[in-house]
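retry 2 of 3: previous attempt timed out while embedding manganese (II) ion. Reduced batch size to 1 and resubmitted. Inputs unchanged:
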Amino acid sequence: MSPLKKTIPEFLTHLKSLPISKIATNSVLTICVGNESADMDSIASAITFSYCQYIYNEISNSEEKEKNGLNIPIIDIPREDLNLRRDVIYVLEKLKITEEELFFIEDLKSLKEHVPYGTKVNSYLVDNNDTPKNLKNYIDNVIGIIDHHFDVKKHIDAEPRIVKVSGSCSSLVFNYWYEKLQGDREVVMNIAPLLMGAFLIDTSNMERKVESSDKLAIKRCQDVLDHAANEVSAQGLQDTRVFYKEMKSRKNDIKGFSVSDILKKDYKQFNFQGKGTKGLEIGLSSIVKRMSWLFNEHDGEAEFIKQCKKFQTERGLNVLVLLTSWRKAGDSHRELVMLGDPNVLCKLIDRVSEKLQLQKFSGKLEEGVAMFKQLNVEATRKQVVPYLEEAYSKLEG
Ligand SMILES: [Mn+2]
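retry 2 succeeded.
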């Protein structure tokens, strides 16, 4: 076996200990970022990518090492918002990674302030194929992409540029590095909890959206875990059912959160371009409880909607969309709620209604609120966003 390599927490501590001159070399600071929802998959993908790059550099010759350099995994939210992601916290605890060892938007800002004048920020994007809007002002070049979202065909020269259907992006990141590192057993052991965490959440414990990339990654990972059944680091991962249940119950635990916390916990914002000159600023929150639960917990429908409108104003949104999903007796359920200008809502709904099989159950469209059951339960935000964007792109005026 090769000499012991750094674990992920050791790698992160190492990064935090380095002087800025070692982090930004040759006038370049390289980072790796997931998407702004900062869910399990995005965080797992970014940490895995940066960690594997580091290990790869360590075993490469000095020329190669110099060429690749380090990259810093950035989580695209403010530090204080990590606590809203209880499933992520659970997996990080398993890995003995603490919040202080991670890098958030503030950390990128601080790094950028401290690098020598003229330093460029190059970024790898994972779980995302266009520069996240929160970080637009910090990133100069996109140099590599691994993602499983709709391909917006930007950054065509990125290397690697892997954009394909996969249950979780972490599977694609894992496979990419598994091949480059020739299946290094120790590295697989170290990243296994991140891969398993993201994969199990994204595929609902392998019941939905499992693609060939996921099957390959899990097989590779399980083969290593099976051979290490007695090792501490492999424990708790063999029984995926238990691991999934633990994560899921934490992910679904949003009791006690404010409405604003619920809305920003799994949130993405876009600017859609239409035929007119004006773009549409649209925010989409994925929520793990149904609307009736939210109304109950937050002083009724009127008060909940009032808080949503406040959030909408604070973020300068023309449209706010809530996508709720939950499971009951083994069946999936979804709702889609839209807030915004009645005229725009009406046209958008008209154009996506059939694809999403929307069935109105509450809200007054003339007051700018419409609530639907979404009978097409397979469509997650990954599909809803391009549907709405296409609908908006065809609107007149
Ligand atoms: Mn993802």
